[in-house]
Specification:
Number of strands: 15
Number of helices: 9
Radius of gyration: 38 Å
Structural class: alpha+beta
Order of helices and strands: HHHHHEHEEEEEEEEEEHEEEEHH
Shape: elongated
Distance between the termini: 87 Å
Largest sheet: 4 strands, mixed
Helix content: 10-25%
Amino acid sequence: MASKRDYYDVLGVSRDASEGDIKKAFRKLARELHPDVNPDDPSAAERFRETSEAYEALSNADTRARYDRYGHAGMAGTQFHPEQFMDFSNLSDLLGAFFGDDLFGGGTRRPARGGDATAAVELTLAEAAFGVTREVDVDIIAVCDRCNGNGAEPGTTPDTCPTCGGSGHVQHVSNTAFGQFVQTSTCPACRGRGARIDSPCTACRGRGRRRTSESVEVQIPGGIMSGQRLRLAGRGHAGEAGASRGDLYLGVTVAEDSRFQREGNDLVSVLDLPFTRAAMGTSVTVETLDGPHEIEVRPGTQPGETLVLRGKGIPVLGGRGRGDHRVVVNVRVPRKLTPEQRSMLEAFETTVDEGTYAADDGFFHRLRTAFR
């Protein structure tokens, strides 16, 4: 007969492992080795039995002390029942490995957290750029202000539910091949409240919560973009008694601004400039987020050239600095000319030479020259 493996080796833990480490190791192995998970592996049942026996021995302080001192010899006379799990805490640990701790055994039902709520807000470009404080109306489920959330009509009090004894849950016991199986579920009589209400609140009909509208003050940070969402913790729907509220998610839409086009943290605007002023150069005033700003247009400015105003764009969300404001020059060419104007242009044309329309050194030309 093959000798038994060391229990610590079976669970894959050290001899000084804590109770929590042993439980964690067993749960991991239970998920991997349970016969129901490995129906096609004929050795799974034996390996699962070995793992269960090791855990049953090491999870009990007395049997673990005997095993640590005498090894398997110290287990003589000890009856293990890994396939039946007569010790209910072991069954709870096994089932917890698959389903969680609160579903089986003497777990208590936790009050449900409130759901998340959503709302929307529309901002101007300036508000999105520099931030703003807004009041937002939100439709939420809140604690009933008539009964303060207990569900009973004022002047009356809820009674303890006789079905669950106030715990809010009931247990159903059944026998399986693994031993007793205890399933915890919400009490059908009180629906988990733990109390019986004979005189329900007329405002919320005994629910303790009701739909209402709430005004929420929101600090919207500068630099936010259309389509982003803000999370306001604890400003969503109310939870069950004793549970926290959900969160509020605020969807942001930034209205279009006819003066600017936003590109990330940069702004782009168009400067319409008569061809004569583009040719001779001029000073013009352009609109920025900070107000009017005077810029110099050098003589010979071409259509599509960009004048960059550093640091005049959108502030960086959650960071430092601002983007740039790029002004694209649109040189306007006259569509209609008077006879006098045509005559003047014709006279100008007779004075044109090769230097009049000489191409400016472009960026790549200047770059190549710099590396010669």
